[in-house]
Amino acid sequence: MSGTQIMWTVIGVILALGVIGLIGLAILYALAKRPDRFRVRAIGLDDVDAYVAKRASLAITVVETTPLSRREVWDRIAGSAYLGNLPLVHGPHWTTGSGPADASSPVRSGRRRWMSGTFLAVSEQVIEVADRERLTLTGDGVSVPLAVKGFVERFTIADGERSGTVVVTWEIAGSPRWIGFLPWRWTAPLLRPLLGSLLRHILRLTPFRSSDVRDGTAA
User: Fold this and answer.
1) Whole-number Cα distances in Å, 218 to 27, 51, 112, 213
2) How far apart are CA 73 and CA 168, in angstroms?
3) 113 lies in the same domain as 198
4) Closest residue by Cα to residue 31 from 129, 138, 148
5) pLDDT for position 82
6) Dist. CA 157–CA 159, nearest whole Å
7) Where are the transmembrane segments (predicted)?
8) What gap in Å lies between CA 109 and CA 136, rounded to an integer?
């Protein structure tokens, strides 16, 4: 085979892979419209501590101190679509039938909410509520098949050491379905700054716009 033939063969392979990749992204984009399309294994409340500590393939904990009041922190965590003004992501939104998280319809166990990105969406269910103190959710759905085995997230609000401050702890843990045996926890130090930035965004002193705070719904 001549050099020219090899060159065109390589170009053809690259173009074919590019087309396949675009088709794959188009499929993921379409699937992302249904965060509950594929079920994931729910984590029971009694198992959350052990799951975060050991059983999950990846677990990340970030902690931030804020002068915001407990009520303001809780309203943002439980009632605002705090991802709404970030690029390429939406939510979290309470699903239809779960209702918005506001004073007249407080968060309670069993409620569901969803979050979506351009190519991935997930849904989760509340399994623990301690008003202005703790909110724990387990994953119950994902838009992509055979991707996620299970995940949980937990927000904990506590008084800070200094008067007028609040400490917010955000724990996220999860496991992929097929490659959970890989040492994913080694990547936690790389991902922690990203989650820390997101938590600081949630706790920013500038109030959210009404469009960010207003709860959305999904059919």
Assistant:
1) 20, 29, 10, 16
2) 8
3) yes
4) 148
5) 86
6) 7
7) 6-31
8) 9
141 and 135 in contact (C-beta within 8 Å)?
no
Q: Are residues 89 and 187 in the same domain?
A: yes
Task: Tell me the pLDDT tens digit for each residue of 43-63.
Answer: 999 999 999 999 999 999 999
C-alpha 76/C-alpha 170 separation (Å) is 13
Do residues 51 and 174 lie in contact, with contact meaning Cβ atoms separated by under 8 Å?
Answer: no
Tokens of 30: 């379409």
pTM given for the model: 0.79
Quote the number of domains for the chain.
2
Which backbone phi and psi does 144 adopt, to 5 degrees? -105, 130
In this structure, the answer to whether residues 12 and 94 fall within a common structural domain is no
The reply to whether 92 and 2 lie within a common domain is: no
Q: How far apart are CA 74 and CA 69, in angstroms?
A: 9
Rounded Cα distance between 150 and 40, Å, is: 5
Note whether residue 206 is domain-resident. yes
Sign of CA dihedral 205, 210, 211, 212: positive
